[in-house]
Amino acid sequence: MQVAIVTGATGGIGFGCATKLADAGVAVLATGRDEGRLAELSRAIGDPARVATLAVDLVDDDAPRQVVAAALDHWGRVDFLVNAAGVGSPKPLHETDDESLDHFLRLMLRAPFRLVREVLPHLQAGSAIINITSTFAVVGGMRGGAYSAAKGGLTAMTTHIACQYGAQGIRCNAVAPGVIQTPMTEHRLQDERFRRINTEMTPHQRLGSVDDVASTVAFLCSPGGAFINGQTIVVDGGWSSTKYLSEFALTSEWKAAQPDSK
Length: 262
Prior knowledge:
Layout: E1 3-6, H1 12-23, E2 27-32, H2 35-45, E3 51-55, H3 63-75, E4 80-83, H4 98-119, E5 128-132, H5 145-165, E6 171-177, H6 183-189, H7 192-199, H8 210-220, E7 232-235, H9 247-251
Parallel strand pairs: 1-2, 1-4, 2-3, 4-5, 5-6, 6-7
């Protein structure tokens, strides 16, 4: 039985990745900070032989050792690592203080870097690492700030791993979601401007779902993804790669932007 470590499994995308991989017959070590949510994940998978959880803060110095040791203790191997832990609500660079910068970089760049370093000696040919990045690492993004910096670094780390360890049969790819309907984005989607930026500029007729991302991750861990390495697969319905505007956007009355009141 193959084994996957999924970080950020208490969040929407991480939770979805963990359950999708379990549905495919992969045993999952799920990590997160919310013990209640981890228990919910265990119930959702419903098979104690294929799921174990670890409540841990990934930014802690000993976290990588704890995570990898837990997987090895349960199943004696690791085949896949899915770095899905993240945080949202960034601010533009000029509004970002050092504390916020450090928080974003520690969780979404330093933590996955250290976890990959810890797990590498245990990966065999056929293993795969999947880093969840963002369209903000592909095309930038208003207000991206430290979030864009962290996700961009994770993209570069992905290509390095693919090059450095590909000859050992270890693949590494990134999955870059657009705006996915999760608890982390729910409040932003209540903002009319933010919602329009995504709905009226996306050729697909809906927003992305957790299952869209999780299915892509599962494919990259499957035999079908065995020759895909060093790639960023964008899951955004065409938002970042087209110049699409909906009929509503094209026929609406355009207004000049108002000066920032600040």
